[in-house]
C-alpha cells in the first residue's frame, strides 16, 4: 500500500462565510495529498469544521436553534478520543491538569483571553470588538512544564515547524516562557464533559485540536492510529501557537508522539487588507471559480503566491496568469499538438519514438521530475509548479522550433514530422501526469484526449514520467479546449 502519509487542514468555523483565505489551506493540502498519491503513498487527507463550544452555542441561540441541531450529531468517536486524551494527561502522574480560577479579558470571537497589553485600543486585536471581563473555575493544562521538552523536540527535529521564519517564531515563544492554559468551562454546558468532573466541559483546544487524532483512530482504532499518526498539519500562521506549542505539549503529556510537521502558510490579503465580511474584501471562492474554473483557481493560488509567505490577491494577476500559463501555455500546447495529429495522422500517435529528435525535452523532463519531488518534499509548492511549467515552456519552444506544420508540407520529411509529433504528444502525456495533483479535471481531460487507456489515477511517479510511455497507435482526439480564453 505504500508509505502512510497523513495530512490535515485546520477545522473551519462553520459560522462564517468562507473566503479565498480558507480555500487556500484546503487547496494546498489537497494538492499535497494528490501528489503523494501519485508517488504511491497511502494517503489520508483530513479536513472539516470546528463545531464546538461557546461560539457555536451563541450563534445557535441567535438563530433560535439548539446547538446540537445546529451542528448535527456530535460524533461519539470524537468524544471517545477527547476523553481518552484528557484521561491520559490527567493520569500521567505529574499533575499536568489542575483546578484553578481564571479571570481575564475575553473575546468571544477568538474564544480566548487577552492580557491588557495585547489589546489594541482596548479592543480585541483580531476582531476589533470589545472584550468582556470573565472569571470562573477551570481546569488548567500545565503548559509551563513543557518548555524544555518542546525545545528539545524542535532542536532534534528542525523540520517539525516550517518554514524557518515560523520555526524561529515558535522557538522564541517557547523561550519567552509558557503560561498554563485553561481547558474547561462551567459557564456553558454544550461540549464534551471532563471525564472525572462532568460539570466541566472541555474548552476549545482539547476538543478542537484533538480532531486530528480522532480521525486517525486514537482511542478507538489503535492499528489505524499507529499507521497514520504522526501527521503533517497545514495551517495558516494565525494559529501557529496552538499547533506548534499547545498541541505537541498536550500530546507529550499524554504520551503520544507530536505531529511530524506543522507547516504554517502566510495570509492572503485583498488590496493590502485582511479579508473579512465586514470590509467587503472577503472574496468567496465561487466568485473566482465561476470565472476561471476550479483547476485554474487551484493553480493560480499555488503558483502566484510563494507558499509560506503572505500574498496579495488581485483579479488582474489571476487573469494574467490564466492567459499566460494556462490558455497560451499548457492549453495552447495541447490544442496545437492534437490538431497536428488530427490533420496528419488521423489522430493516431505515430510509431516514431526517437529521443534524439525530441530536443531538450527528455532530459528536461527527468530533471524536472527530480526538482518537482524535491520541492514537494520541502512543501515549496510554488517552485514545484514553476518546475513543471518549465516543461510547458520548453515544449512550446520545441514546437515553434521544429515547426511540424512546415515539415508536413514536405513528403520527404514525413519521418521527421512523425518523430516531432510523437515527442510533442509524449510531453503532453507526461504533463498530464505531473499536473494531475494541481489540476485534476484538466489533466484528466488531456489524458482522455491523448487516447490513454489506463486510468490517470493509477499512474505513479517516477515511472509514468519516463520518456517513451506513449503507445504508438493510440487514438488521440481534439476535444474542447482545456483553458478557453476569458471573455474581455
Ligand atoms: N477553527 C479554528 C482552527 C482550529 S484547528 C484545530 C480556525 N478556524 S477559521 O475558520 O477561522 O480559520 C481556519 C484557517 O483558515 C486559518 O488557520 C488559515 O489556515 C485559513 N485562513 C483564514 N483566513 C486566511 C487568509 N486571509 N489567508 C490565508 N489563510 C487564511 O481558526
Brief account:
The chain has helices spanning 20-38, 53-62, 67-70, 76-90, 147-156, 164-175, 205-208, 211-214, 222-228, 240-253, 285-292, 294-304, 315-345, 361-377, 381-402, 404-407, 414-435, 440-449; strands at 4-12, 42-49, 97-107, 112-114, 132-141, 161-162, 181-182, 184-185, 201-202, 232-236, 261-265, 268-270, 273-274, 311-313. It is an alpha/beta fold and 488 residues long. The strands form 4 sheets. The chain has a 5-stranded parallel beta sheet with strand order 2-1-10-11-6, with helices on both faces.
What spatial form do the alpha-carbon principal axes imply?
elongated
The tally of beta strands, per DSSP, is: 14
Question: What compounds sit in this structure?
Answer: 5'-O-[(L-methionyl)-sulphamoyl]adenosine
| Low-confidence spans | none
Arithmetic mean pLDDT: 93
Major β-sheet annotation:
5 strands, parallel
Work out the radius of gyration.
26 Å
Compute the separation of the termini in Å.
Answer: 48 Å
The helix/strand class is alpha/beta
* Beta-strand percentage range: 5-15%
* Helicity level: 40-55%
Strand order of the largest sheet: 2-1-10-11-6
Number of helices: 18
